[in-house]
Design brief:
globular
Length: 176
């Protein structure tokens, strides 16, 4: 990346997106994907590859994902700035909001707010999943595998870890 302002631009935009992330970073993944692809920092395929790697590693995977993106855009300093940008602003906001929320915990508006935010959060997370699936361009086999795994998880009590392992094996064998 030759543009010296790119890591700063990335960090500022990630900080703004992280402040809007009801339901966590997956809720704003479409915005992050659009940001990095529109600026030609990553291709959609690179983004989904980074996402897949970040999901397989234990720990704070979204911070790791932003670190991967930041590294690609601006090296080590870009990785650090992106990782900080994704969690520092919301942490400050959440701490402040918690203090206020706790102070007014007996007010009826809290129940109304919680009930209103639940469907918003769910919708944002689902939208993020759809955008990630489109960016992955997995084809009909990938879609079939996703539908089968979703149906199996919904109908049974099988652990998602077994389904992840099976999906990884199928992909590793080149069947997708």
């Amino acid at each position: 990346m030759n543009d010296a302002s790119a890591p700063v631009t990335l960090a500022v935009r990630l900080a703004l997106l992280s402040c809007l992330s009801f339901g966590g970073i997956p809720a704003v993944l479409p915005g992050i994907l659009n940001l990095v692809v529109a600026n030609h920092w990553l291709s959609a395929r690179e983004f989904t590859d980074f996402y897949a790697v970040a999901q397989t590693i234990p720990g704070p995977n979204m911070i790791l994902l932003m670190g991967f993106i930041g590294w690609k855009v601006g090296g080590a300093s870009g990785a650090i700035a992106s990782a900080l940008a994704i969690f520092a602003p919301p942490c400050v906001m959440y701490y402040t909001a918690y203090r206020l929320w706790d102070r007014f915990r007996d007010k009826p508006w809290q129940t109304i707010a919680r009930r209103g935010l639940a469907p918003v959060t769910l919708g944002l997370v689902i939208a993020g999943g759809i955008v990630m699936a489109r960016a992955a361009a997995a084809g009909w086999r990938g879609i079939a595998l996703t539908v089968a795994a979703t149906a199996l998880m919904t109908a049974t009590r099988v652990s998602p870890l077994w389904l992840l392992a099976a999906g990884g094996a199928i992909g590793g064998l080149g069947l997708l």
